[in-house]
Amino acid sequence: MHHHYQKSLSYKIFAIFNYVLLTVIALLCILPLIHILAVSFSGSAAATANLVGLWPVDFTIDAYEKTIGNENFLRSLWNSFLRVILGTVISMAVMLCAAYPLSKSDKAFHGRKIYMWFFVFTMLFHGGLVPTYMVVTKLGLMDTIWALILPSAVSSFNLILLVNFFRTSVPKSLEEAALMDGANHFTIFWKIYLPISIPAIATISLFTMVFHWNSWFDGMIYMSDVKHYPLSTFLQTIIVQQDFTKMSVDAETMKNLSERTVKAAQIFIAALPMLVVYPFVQRFFVKGIVLGAEKE
Amino acid sequence: MLKKFLATLAATALAVGMLAGCTDNESASSGGSSESKDGKVTITTVRTLKDDTKFRNGEDLNNNPITRWSEKELGIKWKTLWTAPNDEQYHNKIRLALSSGQKLPDVFKVSDGQLINDLIRSGKVMPIDEAIEKYASPRLKEIFNQFPEAFYPATVDGKRYGIPRFSGGNGSDSLLWIRKDWLDKLELQPPKTIEDLEKIMDAFVNKDPDGNGKKDTIGLTLASKNGLATWLADGSFIFGAYGNYEPGSWSKDEDGSLVYGSVQPSIKKGLEKLHEWYEKGYLDQEVGILDEQTAIKSFVAGKSGIISAPPWASGWPITDALKNNPGAVVEPYPLPSGPDGKIGRRGEGLVTGMFLFSKDFKHMDKFFEYLDEAFAYVYNDSKYFKYGLAEGYDYVMKDGKTVYDDKEIPGGRLDPGTYFITEAIPTVPYMLYDLVEEMYTTKRQPKNAYEYTRIVSLGDSFMKAATIVNEQNQYRIENEFTGPPTKTMQKRSEFLTKMERETFANIIYGRAPLSAFDEFVKKWEESGGKEMTKEVNEWYQSVKGEK
Amino acid sequence: MQPAVDLKGQTAAVEVRKQRKWRGTWQLHAMLLPAIVIVFIFQYIPMVGLVMAFQDYEPWLGFLHSPWVGLEHFKTMFEYEDARQVIWNTFVISTLKIIFNLGVPLAFALLLNEIYVVKFKRTVQTIVYLPHFLSWVILGGILIDMLSPEGGMVNRMLSLFGMDSIFFLGDNDWFRTVVVVTDVWKECGFNTIVFLAALTSINPSLYEAAIVDGANRWQQTIYITLPSMLPIIIVVGTLSLGNILNAGFDQILNLYNPLVYKTGDIIDTYVYRVGLLNGDFSYATAVGLFKSIISFMLVVTGYRLAYKYANYKIF
């Protein structure tokens, strides 16, 4: 991958500057994280006093033991995996199907405009918590994983992104040719749109995964049984700041008060699976380039 | 297929449209209390379940020593329908259940004043005056009569709807914790007055008490982000030294009516002091942005010499301070007095929630029986819990003797008290610290697991501190307004509180002159404060009137 | 040089042919059905709840029986003494966030695109994406430490350059800057992904042609990369207009304090404080509806402008 412009002096200066800049930015992003990692392995006394820098003080794995040792931890981890996989698959299937017709021109698909605004509207107007809760209850979804998956299955924001990716990355000529050969919409969607749009699909899938992985509020509202909590909801129960003015506070409560080390440990536990998934998704960005090269 | 689908859709739409809160008929079979053939009663409930509540061997809220005891001895089967990890989410779920017309559990605790009021007005919970009269044991009646004001949060039109879950009464009242090693090093005496305290703070700031050659220490650790009178790193003693009022609290005026603390002239004196102390470097430079849990870092790191905190602070955060600063000695001291000899501190409220009862609940007798047995344990008068709540949990028998030590119990000590519907071994206000004072002064041995876990195991420093707090009980300034937000409060209180916090912070930081306080008071009165005061007193009369 | 996208530029002849061919667009409708159904059930039916904004909603009475109050809640909102301050703060903070959350990730994606050491590129990409996973509850605590005027990391660095220490979180001159910078820091990696995905779909033959024409890298960026990415930039930009009244509730809630109410208090934190007091949904719904209407108008305007000036239809 060497191009002639890379040989020019000005580009070389730029390249050096670029590497330095990106390294600095990366450091800025990772140093606080290293700090948190150090805190998570520190004794809680030192952490409370803010004495931990980038290296643990009074090394201990108590915080991890406390989180992972909880019997609900593994169960919630499983719930989260299930939610992410099922949620992403369903969400992507529904949205990709919808994005295809919406990416047509107004002339090619009458009614497209109405459909589109139907979705755009929901991006900005929301019924709110109470009525949504009622719908979920009435449909009998309470305490089931569907309560976490179906209400958020269609994200208008992601749908619009997909539509635009479809429009910009699929060459019209290819589609025309397929039509000439007598292909129907399902075939074009399956054989042309999907393979070409892999970077876009990877991107939106990633967004959807992250969304499902991070959401905690719906788990809290719709799950009756703690055993059905997804991980983020479970973690939230530990992280959350308690309002002690209305609680009966005694020595026992305070002794168990989970503090900064536990919070810090949770960040890593929560971020770890995404750390594995993301580099994997990045592969598809490169693949997309190769595919794009073949497309004309 | 499509038709069927559309039909379902329409039905759903209709159903939601009809959700007018009048659909009470659903799930009548699942939620309601019922008596089974063997004469046992099932009572449904919901509760908060903090994550650190531990269970043994896969037990849960519906199956543990307490529920087993309750079923076997009292014939009550408890069924916990759902849990939430903290009060905010718990109230959220109850509010949603109320809004969507779901059936309420038989018994449940609520600590949010507005929600209690909403539930009462919805007619879905029932008044219990008669039930108390009929079923409450003499012991319970005596406790209830001792603290009539504990019923105020759930009293409407003279009827009582809730049973209070009592706090420790003075359990989270503060006293001073001071670095004794710093006092000794600088040859200072513990403070008796605010003036003494200022001298000590000055020395702590300027005379390098930690001996590191740097001027990096402060006098007093204080939290102010959520108000200056609070549960940890508390500043209420400063205001208490100048008058009988605390910021943010409604307390009795000389004529017996309730007035709002933050607008009283004595608060101005407190703020003046705080500004002076800030200027002199006695306080954390960041004091304005620190909440309770972030404020303590200066003390824990050994950069601060004084913190005002409750007795339980001996466990946390003070042990952390000792761990970080080898050689440090932290001792509890009584609160200092102001120029006129006045002392005052924020007094913790009497209740931490009210138990409400679904209007369909038929077994109040059983509930009171259960509650009485739980209280019996605290009074050391239980026929079921002689040494503790459950062997193998909070005590074990060894060679005919009871052992409470954490290390002796296989799997560690667990507190089955958290499995009670009260979410902890129930308390009666002031009782715990009375007991501590008695045990501390007489040095007697614990009689049961309760006395061991709640008192002796916490150590000498805790017992000394609790004794000091108990001895200063006459200086408590309690928030006497425990009802739901009044009409004007709902409309104006947000603005007034914001203005208050902003003004106080700016005065402390010297960004506004002290006279800003007078403008604040004037504006407070004009912008709804007057109406609020009137409404609060109307409420006060109405709840007091009956009993 | 023609960008890769040209949506209006299809010839009439093609259209006619297509219409003949594509008669019976039932397949297209069918593909939309699942999404329509889900959105209708979970988004549109709950919109019944918006009537709460015009009611004094009592939970046990429901939407049908709660008393109507008309525009009362909206009036309350504008009569609020600090309404101007709160709306202005929201607007300033969110506008700055919209600008920087568009510009920084774009620049970042372009810079990353110039890196040819794949490992370095992927590592940087992954690292900058990590802060997205930190919740503001946790970050709040860390930032208070880092920005502390007494020995915080940032102030220690400033003192190396001989500067006085700054009380970032308690200073009205600095608070908004802190809010915007930390938000960009947290979200930059995430937004970069969209632009990177767009970059990968640019047709390489365009570059080859440009190289033949002797264009240097800078010229290629200006004449090929940016125009090719324009649709996605417009889309992301327009959609983010919908956030014009969302200044970031979680973030502000965890960072603000009485010292910086003047510059940091926003609509959402205000509504939160009101809600804490009376726990009723009506007022929050009314404010939410007001925000939705403003956002909707802005998004529609953005959509129109994009169509008019860039000749591009977002939706």
The quaternary organization reads as heterotrimer
Structural class call of chain B reads: alpha/beta
Low-pLDDT windows of residues of chain B: 17-32
The outline of chain C comes out as flat
Tally of individual domains of chain C: 2
The share of residues in extended strands of chain B comes to 5-15%
CATH domain class name of the largest domain in chain C: Mainly Alpha
| Fraction of residues in helix of chain C | 55-70%
Describe this structure in words.
The complex is a heterotrimer of chains A (296), B (547) and C (315). Chain A is mainly alpha-helical. Chain A folds into two domains: 45 residues; 232 residues, MetI-like fold, CATH 1.10.3720. In chain A, 71% of the residues lie in helices and 0% in strands. Chain A starts with 8 loop residues before the first helix and ends with a helix. The C terminus of chain A is likely disordered. Chain B has 547 residues and is of the alpha/beta class. Chain B folds into two domains: 206 residues, D-Maltodextrin-Binding Protein, domain 2 (3-Layer(aba) Sandwich); 242 residues, Periplasmic binding protein-like II (D-Maltodextrin-Binding Protein, domain 2), CATH 3.40.190.10. In chain B, 40% of the residues lie in helices and 14% in strands. Chain B has 20 helices and 18 strands. In chain B, the strands form six sheets. In chain B, strands 1, 2, 3, 4, 7 and 15 form a six-stranded mixed β-sheet that branches. A four-stranded mixed β-sheet of chain B has the order 9-12-8-13. In chain B, strands 5-6 form a two-stranded antiparallel ribbon. The radius of gyration of chain B is 26 Å and the shape is globular. With 315 residues, chain C is mainly α. Chain C folds into two domains: 46 residues, no CATH class; 237 residues, MetI-like fold (Orthogonal Bundle). Chain C is 68% helix and 0% strand. Chain C is built from 15 helices and no strands. The N terminus of chain C is likely disordered. The chains are: A mainly alpha (296), B alpha/beta (547), C mainly alpha (315). Chains in contact: A-B, A-C, B-C. Chains A and C meet through helix 1, helix 4, helix 5, helix 6 and helix 8 of A and helix 1, helix 2, helix 5, helix 6 and helix 7 of C.
